[in-house]
Amino acid sequence: MIIWSGRGFLIVLVLFASLFAGFYFLPKESSDYGFVFAAFLTGLFSWAFGRKWNRADNRVFIDEKTGQRFRIKNNHTLFWIPMQYWGIILPILGIVILFQNSTLIAVIATIILVGIIIFQFNRNKTKKPISNHGNLQTSPKRNKKTEVEIEQNKPDSFEDREKRRKEKEDPSRFMPK
User: How many CA atoms lie within 13 A of 86 on its CB side?
Assistant: First the structure.
């Protein structure tokens, strides 16, 4: 049984398609490398698209009745593991099979995989948030906000929160009118 949410099933489809391609095009004596090829290709697919698809969505929805805000969260998983983490798990499985066949190639693949992981994490740490705070030459179009945007971004006042809390605590709200 395969359990997924969102687009997580694509990992299995890409894995089987690349397994088929690897076994079809590689000679029979090197069929173990077909799984290694499939694991690395599927890992690359899972890492790239998992990071893209599981990125937090910046849209906020406001419930008209309660005024409560909701942020959309993307969830693309396979066996409850987010898609981008399969991009690390599958190449590790490929490296394990490489160690059984060729230690030298497995060591090289391990060094490359660790280098890519370190590069990705360092690149994410060095990204600076985008802001216009020190920039004197800002575009007037960027700085203009409509009244609706300002109203949506304004934090709730104490009175609004108390009103919503009292509405939630009112037991008569469940009674028929």
Answer: 28
Predicted confidence (pLDDT) at residue 52 exceeds the cutoff of 80: yes
Number of other CB atoms surrounding residue 76 within 10 Å: 21
Residues written for the chain: 177
DSSP state, residue 4:
E
Question: Closest by alpha carbon to 152, among 58, 16, 82, 77?
Answer: 58
Strands 77-78 and 81-82: antiparallel
Distance CA 120, CA 86 (A): 15
Q: Is residue 131 scored above 70 in pLDDT?
A: no
Give the containing element (helix H, strand E) for 81.
Answer: strand 81-82
Q: What is the DSSP letter of 154?
A: S
Q: Percentage of residues in the chain with pLDDT exceeding 70?
A: 75
Q: Which residues of 39-59 are buried (b: 16+ CB within 10 A; e: fewer)?
A: bbbbbbbbbebbeebbeeeee
Residue 128 vs residue 147, higher pLDDT: 128
Mean pLDDT (the chain) is 75
Quote the DSSP letter at residue 62: E
Q: Is the pTM of this model over 0.70?
A: no
First to last CA, the chain: 48
